[in-house]
C-alpha cells in the first residue's frame, strides 16, 4: 500500500516526514543493513512525493550516517538506528530533532570556549550543581532532560553575552525533545554508555573550571557529536 505524505498543521516539510518514514522502515527491518533502498523513482511512487523531496530526505539520511550513497548504484543502509529513535519521538520529528545537533555544535562549542574564559565563580558553582543533579537523575534511572538543559544553559549564560542564552532558549523546545530522546535511548542501553554520557559532561565542566577555552570547545564538540551518533546507530556504543 502506497503512503501519501501531507503537510500537517505544524507545516512540517515533506522531506522531514519522508525522512522519518524511511527511518521507521529501516528500524522495522524492511531494509537490512548493507541492503539497498528503493530507487528515487520508486520512492517517489511509494510516497507520492516529488524527486526533490526524495533527494532532500536521502541527503539528511546520508548526513546522519544512516545510509551511504554509491554513485551510479543507489543508497545503501550503513547503520540501523535504535528503536528508541521512533519510540521516543514522532517519525516526522526525527529529522528536525537531528538538525538541532548541527545548530548546537555551531552555538555551544563557541559558548563553551567563551564560558571557560569568562565564567564567574558563582556560575561555576551553578554549573557543578546542574552536573551533580544530572548525574543523580541518570543514576536513579530518571530522564535528566531538565538538569541536562540547565547544564548547557548555565554554560551559555557564562559567556557574558546575552545572545547565547537567548538563542539557546529560542530552540529550547527542539533541544529538550532531542535530549529526551537521546537520554531515553541511553537509559535503556548499557551501563558503560551511561557512564560515557556522564563523563562527557564532566570533561566539559573540568575544562571550564580550568579556564581552558580550546579544551572546552573540543569537549563540547565531542559530546554533541557522540550524542548524535548514539541516536542514529543502534550498534554504536560511542
UniProtKB/TrEMBL annotation:
Keywords: DNA-binding, Transcription, Transcription regulation. InterPro entries: GntR_C, TF_FadR/GntR_C, Tscrpt_reg_HTH_GntR, WH-like_DNA-bd_sf, WH_DNA-bd_sf. The keyword Transcription regulation applies. This is FadR family transcriptional regulator. One of its GO terms (molecular function) is DNA-binding transcription factor activity. Coiled coil: none annotated. Pfam families: FCD, GntR. The keyword DNA repair does not apply. Residues 12-80 form the HTH gntR-type domain. It comes from the Bacteria.
Amino acid at each position: 500500500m502506497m503512503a501519501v505524505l501531507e503537510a500537517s498543521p505544524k507545516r512540517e516539510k515533506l522531506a522531514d516526514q519522508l525522512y522519518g518514514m524511511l527511518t521507521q522502515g529501516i528500524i522495522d527491518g524492511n531494509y537490512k543493513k548493507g541492503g539497498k533502498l528503493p530507487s528515487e523513482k520508486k520512492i517517489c511512487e511509494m510516497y507520492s512525493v516529488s524527486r526533490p523531496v526524495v533527494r532532500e530526505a536521502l541527503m539528511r539520511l546520508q548526513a546522519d550516517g544512516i545510509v551511504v550513497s554509491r554513485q551510479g548504484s543507489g543508497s545503501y543502509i550503513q547503520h540501523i538506528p535504535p528503536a528508541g529513535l521512533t519510540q521516543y519521538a514522532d517519525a516526522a520529528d526525527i529529522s528536525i530533532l537531528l538538525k538541532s545537533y548541527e545548530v548546537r555544535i555551531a552555538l555551544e562549542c563557541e559558548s563553551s570556549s567563551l564560558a571557560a574564559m569568562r565564567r564567574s565563580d558563582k556560575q561555576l558553582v551553578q554549573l557543578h550543581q546542574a552536573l551533580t543533579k544530572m548525574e543523580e537523575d541518570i543514576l536513579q534511572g530518571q530522564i535528566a532532560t531538565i538538569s541536562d538543559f540547565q547544564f548547557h544553559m548555565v554554560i551559555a549564560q557564562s559567556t557574558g553575552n546575552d545572545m547565547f542564552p537567548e538563542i539557546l532558549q529560542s530552540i529550547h523546545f527542539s533541544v529538550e525533545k532531542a535530549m529526551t530522546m537521546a537520554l531515553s535511548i541511553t537509559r535503556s542501553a548499557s551501563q558503560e554508555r551511561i557512564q560515557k554520557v556522564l563523563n562527557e559532561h564532566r570533561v566539559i565542566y573540568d575544562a571550564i573550571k580550568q579556564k581552558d577555552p580550546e579544551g572546552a570547545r573540543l569537549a563540547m564538540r565531542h559530546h554533541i557529536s557522540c550524542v548524535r551518533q548514539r541516536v542514529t546507530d543502534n550498534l554504536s556504543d560511542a
